[in-house]
């Protein structure tokens, strides 16, 4: 958004400078003064009745000497300035013509500082004007966040809303770019729009989810034993299981509420999982062993990755996935390097599951946040508690956690072999 500002002299006309980063130097002598990052030369005795120069630094275009709004001649970057005339500073914004701030100064340094201040004020004014224009444009689409008929009912007027800033807005949509064909498939699915005030950003550890919903803390696919008494929240929302993919190990996994995506599930005993579509709540790992609720999803197996889709994936991910393949595949005798080579040439294919968002259950999310708070108040952590080794090796999502030592061992072996 281009911003223009000018320095002008009253009575004798105006000197207008175009360029967002124009700066002014008033040269009086060889003494150099630091003025907030601006380099200025000034007479030690101040501004008296001497001949001076107004210098424009980094101007994008030649300055124009104006009189009554008409250009009379071009002014160079070292044009001589009459000594005793006051300097009027004006911020000029082409996209906001009604914005006009004037300040008359006798000191060139004051004029310089005022010019920079007015430019910032002008940019703020321009941004506010743009916001007003956007808010006055086409009405927003109706928010779709419906999972069942209960959620379609209007909220009671007294009901409280959880409004949270999205602290994860800087997270990329997918950790690795989607191939065109995969992206096209997702674009054909219904768009799920979740209102910002409903899409909470609270995070839950695997222990939180296990304590509040039931199920284990290790596997990506979490099942809840229906033969035993379920946790109150699982009973209330009829939850028999949920998914906890980690975005770093499932590079095409959705990262925001309402998004569609994929996860790389189907190794070993999971090779027939999701052959039939299943509905599950999804919590995505945010890279710190903390998980964010994304909504209710339909999970169903789709085409495995082709060698062309596997090729652009990060090398570190490929190494980890090869190690996981060996661990999860019975009677696998090949080394991780040979397994990775098999993925490279297409003799092995990475299994893939489509995650299709059906909606965002805001009531479930709010109940989970409230239950977590109440549970933590009820059972504060003991300062003497030492985490177990099993908890530290958190297998997490696709079984890729806890294998960094294997990667280090392989890298060390390669290094020692080359020396």
Describe it for me?
Strands 12, 13, 14, 15, 16, 17 and 18 form a 7-stranded mixed β-sheet that branches. A 6-stranded antiparallel β-sheet has the order 8-7-2-1-10-11, covered by helices on one side. The radius of gyration is 32 Å and the shape is globular. It has helices at residues 108-135, 180-187, 206-213, 232-236, 307-310, 315-328, 336-345, 362-378, 389-392, 404-418; strands spanning 4-9, 13-16, 23-27, 32-35, 38-41, 52-57, 63-67, 70-75, 80-81, 87-92, 100-105, 203-205, 221-223, 241-243, 261-263, 278-285, 290-302, 352-359. It is α+β, with helices and mostly antiparallel strands. The two termini are 55 Å apart. It is built from 10 helices and 18 strands. It folds into 2 domains: 4-135, no CATH class; 166-381 and 389-418, no CATH class. Residues 1-83, 88-103, 138-165 and 388-399 have low confidence and may be disordered. Helix 6 crosses helix 7 (336-345).
Could you give the topology of this structure?
Blueprint: E1 4-9, E2 13-16, E3 23-27, E4 32-35, E5 38-41, E6 52-57, E7 63-67, E8 70-75, E9 80-81, E10 87-92, E11 100-105, H1 108-135, H2 180-187, E12 203-205, H3 206-213, E13 221-223, H4 232-236, E14 241-243, E15 261-263, E16 278-285, E17 290-302, H5 307-310, H6 315-328, H7 336-345, E18 352-359, H8 362-378, H9 389-392, H10 404-418
Parallel strand pairs: 14-16
Antiparallel strand pairs: 1-2, 1-10, 2-7, 3-6, 4-5, 6-9, 7-8, 10-11, 12-17, 13-14, 15-18, 16-17, 17-18
Helix pairs in contact: 6-7
